[in-house]
């Protein structure tokens, strides 16, 4: 089992670097990340994709999912869409 707190911290550092050093974030992404980080049970959050809009990814405890979704919907000025996923073994060949 990995260190979720450390990984979350690195996610936030990565987001801050993309925002501050590379100028590829935007106010909307920063707002989504900030809102996510206010929720108890969230380890980290960051923008993902090519930047300048798009989406964020947030690592959180499963028990914090509903609380995080509700909080982000209340705090964010737009209409976010959520894709709730769980970790898997990763990419691999499947037998059909």
UniProtKB/TrEMBL annotation:
The keyword Mitochondrion is annotated on this UniProt entry: no
MF (Gene Ontology): ATP binding; galactokinase activity
UniProt entry keywords in alphabetical sequence: ATP-binding, Nucleotide-binding
One GO CC term on file: cytosol
GO BP, one annotated term: galactose metabolic process
Domain (GHMP kinase C-terminal): residue spans on this chain: 2-76
Pfam family, one: GHMP_kinases_C
Keyword Nucleotide-binding: yes
Xref: PANTHER family: GALACTOKINASE-RELATED, MEVALONATE KINASE/GALACTOKINASE
Protein name: GHMP kinase C-terminal domain-containing protein
Organism: Danionella cerebrum
Lineage of the species this protein comes from: Eukaryota, Metazoa, Chordata, Craniata, Vertebrata
């Amino acid at each position: 089992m990995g260190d979720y707190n450390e990984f979350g911290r690195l996610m936030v550092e990565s987001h801050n670097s993309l925002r501050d050093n590379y100028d590829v974030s935007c106010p909307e992404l920063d707002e989504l990340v900030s809102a996510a980080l206010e929720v108890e049970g969230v380890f980290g959050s960051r923008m993902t994709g090519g930047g300048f809009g798009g989406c964020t990814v947030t690592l959180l405890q499963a028990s914090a999912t509903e609380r995080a979704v509700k909080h982000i919907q209340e705090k964010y000025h737009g209409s976010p869409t959520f894709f709730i996923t769980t970790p898997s073994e990763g990419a691999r060949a499947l037998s059909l």
